[in-house]
Amino acid sequence: MSAKIQVNQLQKSYGTNEVLKGLDLTVQENEVVVMIGPSGSGKSTFLRTLNKLEEPTAGQIIVDGHDLNDAKINMNHVREKIGMVFQHFNLFNNLTVGENVMLSPVELGKLNKQDAKVEAKDLLKRVGLEDKFDANPKSLSGGQKQRVAIARTLAMKPDMILFDEPTSALDPEMVGDVLAVMKDLAKDGMTMIVVTHEMGFAKEVADRVIFMADGYIMEEGTPNEIFSNPQNKRTKEFLNKVLNV
Amino acid sequence: MKRARIGLLSIICGVIFIMGLAFSKPVNVNAAEKVYEIGTDVTYPPFEFANDQNKYVGIDIDIMKTIAKNEGFKVDIKPIGFNAAVQALDAGQIDGMIAGTTITNERKQKMDFSDSYFKTGVVMAVAKNSSIKSYSDLKGKRVAIKTGTAAGDYAKSIQKKYGFTTVTFDDSNNMYDDVSTGNSVACFEDQPVMQYAIKTGAKLKIVTKPAEGGYYGFAVKRGKNQELLKKFNAGLKEIKANGQYEKIVTKYLGASAMASEKKDKSQNTFVDLWNQNKDALMGGLGQTIILTVLSIIFATIFGVLIGLLGVVPNKLANGFSTTVIYVFRGLPLLVLALFIYTGVPNLLGEKIPAFIAGIITLTLNEGAYTAAFVKGGIEAVDDGQMEAARSLGLPYGKAMRRVILPQGLKIMVPSFINQFIITLKDTSILSIIGILELTQTGKIIIARNLEGFKIWTMVALIYLIIITLLTWLSKWVERRMKS
Ligand SMILES: Nc1ncnc2c1ncn2[C@@H]1O[C@H](COP(=O)(O)OP(=O)(O)O)[C@@H](O)[C@H]1O
Ligand SMILES: [Mg+2]
């Protein structure tokens, strides 16, 4: 096992609003980390700094041994290896489902059109949507869209995937299908950071659970430690709220 | 950053291309045999007007052409309107002007005049059935005058004394109409012009003796084109001596000339007028279409480039884009056209042909509007689309081309169609710099036959037909794009 991601004293501010106030985190290869915490605590911001959708204000991020502060680094190459799945799917509206999955391998010259098509069909089969290859994304349900988004990310053969509340925008009956796909990925050894409120998923799949609040990591541990025996007062309060609804 | 630089480079190329187009033509002309460009009024009969065949004729035109022939030089007569000619002369866009221009001390500040070729005086005309007989009847009434004319200046000089108000027109016919329809009670005009207009159909009568005797002269910009001025003076002496001058004046002010002109225009049906003028109108339409198509092409290229500069992640490019949009959307089209046609050449010391000036004007103005909706269309695409594309490792340019632009374009299509139609309509404004497009053609025909209602109806219908066709075409393209 080696460190996939290493974050040192990461800070991010929007103007005077300090969102991340100094985060340290190391994620090992094949590890599944679940991140929980109240809304507005900076979870999304944190994920987005890891692939530089947001520029950090200070601190260090090392991905696969590459320091992202290094001016010579090609962010596009780094991003190819870090998949990202969004709360609102962000499927490309101008493309069919198949084209969504094929776009980046073809555009970036990883695969020719033919191979990309075969690959895309394979990936769609893996997420249970082989019959949707020619469909318009608009015709899909939320759960189907999110599974297409996961297939699209997998098409780049990433080393790790960041999930930002992948099931929060879904009707309850859709959540299971998406989580099943994610569990499969975890079982196959994908390195994952998952922001979610699905405590069941966390208990079952996570190697580690991180509780974030006020721009800090307040507490981290195994699912058992965090859910059964939280140490931090804020963690307790938060879990009480989420688990007792 | 790299992307932004490529964008910036392409915009610079675009501007250079347009500039190149602008200056390639005059250079060619200069290299060829010397042709003097002479500005004149659109319509100032009997001095200059378009005849039945839409050829420019009149005392000024014939004198100019006869002298040119005798003295052995070439002239290109440009009927751009009196005021436009004054400005074009000052800007060096034309070499001389002959437009029934009264020699005044004020004008001598800016122009050098030839010896006078015609003596005139200011008269007042009123509607046929009017009871007004003298200046003193004008108290509290409204009087029509033409901008920048000596007759107009005279009216203004006595305005206080007799207590009337004035309304100004750019065009003699509009001025006559204002009086014959009763909007104004009287107008002031040079005697020969007024006589000729009445004899050829204006429903007015002259009620005063000529005042303020004035002298018409041919003019060049002060200190410029002195050899042309010398040739004109020499030529004038010659035609006065050999009888050609007398012949020209009689041709337009003699009784027989009037009779034939008068008979022509008593009752023209719509169809008659169409048959008489369809060639001229179609010629004008041709210019309008060429102007529209070229302007749409250049404005679209310019607009898309500026619009893209407005959305790339580069502060400098964004600022540039915002400024360009702000300036060229903010300027009235008319001001922009005059600025480019008569202002810029002043600075450059290079002529810009009216046609090129017109294309540049429309490219900048319509392009600014295009840039604004291109920018808006791209910004209307959900941010998540770009984020998803970038997080897959697509570089900015690829993400833009494959994901953002196709969606933005769909949003922009109705705006593009709208802008094409606006461009077509806006070409009419270029009549101000004397481009012989549809509107200017209409103006010139009406200047000759005074059939304002029928000719403007034709012009309006032609515009509507073309706009309808353009709309259909655009809708068809839009449908094709969707499927
Ligand atoms: N683009 C942005 N500009 C300004 N403030 C932002 C931006 N994105 C997030 N924030 C702020 O950062 C804080 C954390 O947001 P976020 O990371 O979305 O929290 P979480 O995902 O934990 O709910 C919030 O206060 C939010 O208002
Ligand atoms: Mg969030």
From TrEMBL, chain A:
PROSITE patterns cross-referenced by the UniProt entry: ABC_TRANSPORTER_1, ABC_TRANSPORTER_2
Ranges in coiled-coil conformation: none
Nucleotide-binding as UniProt keyword: yes
Keywords: ATP-binding, Nucleotide-binding, Transport
Any single Pfam family the record assigns to this protein: ABC_tran
ABC transporter domain span: 5-239
Keyword ATP-binding annotated: yes
Protein name: ABC-type polar amino acid transport system, ATPase component
Lineage: Bacteria, Bacillati, Bacillota, Bacilli, Lactobacillales
TrEMBL record, chain B:
Main location, first listed in the record: membrane
TM region positions: 289-312, 324-344, 455-473
InterPro entries per record: AA_ABC_transptr_permease_3TM, ArtM/GltK/GlnP/TcyL/YhdX-like, Iontro_rcpt_C, MetI-like, MetI-like_sf, Solute-binding_3/MltF_N
Keywords: Cell membrane, Membrane, Transmembrane, Transmembrane helix, Transport
Compartments, record wording: Cell membrane
GO cellular component: a single term: ATP-binding cassette (ABC) transporter complex
One GO BP annotation of this record: amino acid transport
GO molecular function: ligand-gated monoatomic ion channel activity
Membrane topology (UniProt): Multi-pass membrane protein
Keyword Transmembrane helix: yes
UniProt family annotation: Belongs to the binding-protein-dependent transport system permease family.
Protein name: ABC transporter permease subunit
Natural source organism: Pediococcus stilesii
